[in-house]
Each structure stands twice: as C-alpha cells, then as structure tokens.
Amino acid sequence: MNLELSKKQQVFVTILTVFALSLGFGVSANAMHIMEGYLPVKYCLLWGAFCVPFIVVGFMRISKVTSENRKLLVILAMAGAYAFVLSALKIPSVTGSCSHMTGTGLSAILFGPAATSVIGIIVLLFQAILLAHGGLTTLGANTFSMAIAGPIISWAIYKAFKSAGLNKKIAVFCAAALGDLFTYCVTAFQLSLAYPAADGGFGTSITKFLGIFAVTQIPLAIIEGILTVIVVMALESFAMGELKSLGVTDEARRVSFKGGMTVGLLIICAVIAIIPVVSLGKSAEFGGSDDAGSEMITELTGEEYEPWFTPLIEGAFAEGELPGEIESLLFCLQAGLGAGGFFFVIGRLMERSKYEKLLEAKGIKIDDDDK
Which of 355, 343, 259, 277 is nearest to 21 (CA)? Predict the structure, then answer.
C-alpha cells in the first residue's frame, strides 16, 4: 500500500513542526533539570543505583512487547518523539520563570513506567551531552524524577481511573498532568535531601524548592495533560489495533478526534500566548527554574555554590559557558527532530487508516499482518 503523506498532511506536519521550533527559540533559559555538578557525588551514585533495575526491566519490557507485535515499534517511536519534543519546549509560566513539560506520561500510559525509563534516559542523555541541559553527573537523579517517579504516578493514576470506570479522557489528562507535576516534586525532594537548610533542615528546604518547581509547573502540567488526551484520541482513531494490543482500550470502534484536536490546540495556543503577558505584567524575567534552584542552594547553605563538574559542551567555548543563541538553537534542533518524527508517524497512521477503510468499503478483508 502507498503510505506517502498527502499534501494536506505534509502541510499539517510542517506547520506544527514550525510551531515547535518557534517555542524552541522562544525564551532563553539555562536548565530545567538538576544541573551538572549540583549534587554531591554520593547522591549522584545513589540515584544512579536506584535507576539501574528500572532501566534493565524497561529494556526487557520493550523487547517483549515489540517481539509480540512489531507494529508497536512505530507507537514506541512516536512516544519517544513526543517526550523528545515536549521536553525541549521552554515555556514561560505564571510565576515568571521558565520550564518545560516532561512528555513521559504518554509512554507510561501506553507501555508502562519501566519502558518509559528507557525512553526518558535517552532523552536526558541527548540533552546532557549536546545541550548542556541537566548533566551526566546528575543523570541518575534526573532519570529517577522524570523517567521513573513521574511515569509511575502517571501509570498508577491511569490504571486506577480505568479500574474505577471513569471517563478515559479524564483518566489520561490526570495521569499526564499529575505525573508531570510529581516529577518536579521529586526534584525538589532530591535537592532538599542534598541541601537541608541551616535553619529548619529538610522541611524548610523542600518547602522552598517546591515553591520554585511545583508552582511553576502547574500550568505546564495542565497543557501536557490536554496534549496527551489529544494524542490518545488520535491513536484511538488511527491505531486502535495497537492500543488494544497494549491493553489501553477495549473499544472496537474508531473515534473521531478532529474536533477535539482543534479545540485542544486552540486552548493550548491561547494559554501559551496569555502566560507571557500575565507574567510580564509582574516584571518577570523568565529565568530557568533550575537557575532559581541554584540560587536557592546558595541561600540555604549561606555560601555561593560552585558546581564540581561542568557540562562537556561548555568547555568548547572560550568563556566556559554555552551562549544563549547556541543554546536556543540546540533546543530548537531537539524540538524539530521530535516534532518531525512525531507528526510523521501520525501522518503514516492516518494514511494507513484511510487505506484500511477503503478496503473495508470494497469488502476486502485484510489480516493484521498485512495492515
């Protein structure tokens, strides 16, 4: 069958990719994960050790699922691209700082938290090596928060809502949004554990770090929840067989997502447009959330903290720091790669669905292996 994208689909993919690229260039911010060298060595090793069993089980899960149904490789790639692009979109928040979504909720819902840990660490490695975003020394801590803890919450919430017979859209929204929010709660916990306040200890530290990360993340978590609902609706329309194979849906019917997609995208665009206006009214500077976090470390410890390790890519620049223009360009590259891959898969699924409907209209039955 012919799976070439139609002109309409090519235009759709191009527009959304350009939109993602524009957000990649939008606001300059340094880091939104725990930055390189900002955790003591013992905590780097501790969080890294916690991640190992999840990564191993994740590879086993991916191998098992894809060997049973090779068509799930496409859905897995799409989930990875989704995390790739969402984690590259630096969006201002109403608190006056800048952060990004995690994008791991979709993978957690579809493939479970173990498989998501593999997707997450790939994204984080790319960012740490090429973007000076996060870091190799803090890879374990960032993987645990973004690729393990958050996805576990997303998966658990989705399963609980599904078992309770609640509306699927609500289940997907809550799973993605709360998983995103919990990721940054774990980040606050990790930093508080490493840097207890001189006055008040761990309790004071976590209150202050939660004020930086969790509050900033609330509007972005809502956006991620809406986006994930739209994607699941699209998959129900174009990849029902794969969803049934994953146990995500038991519905045999195809659902239309076009109206929901349009409304959802309009809401998201409106929110993204309004947030900077509201924040600028408060004289916000849109610094990175983790920049604020590093300042909080200095405040809690009473002395300016100097990271014990710096990103490898920054050593290539004379000033020892990645210029803002280069940083935005690299984030734009990640956003473009993710968006292009994601919407390419969506376009292929749309074309396959059209092909299957054409055969059904002609009374031709096709086997699953031939779809």
Answer: 343
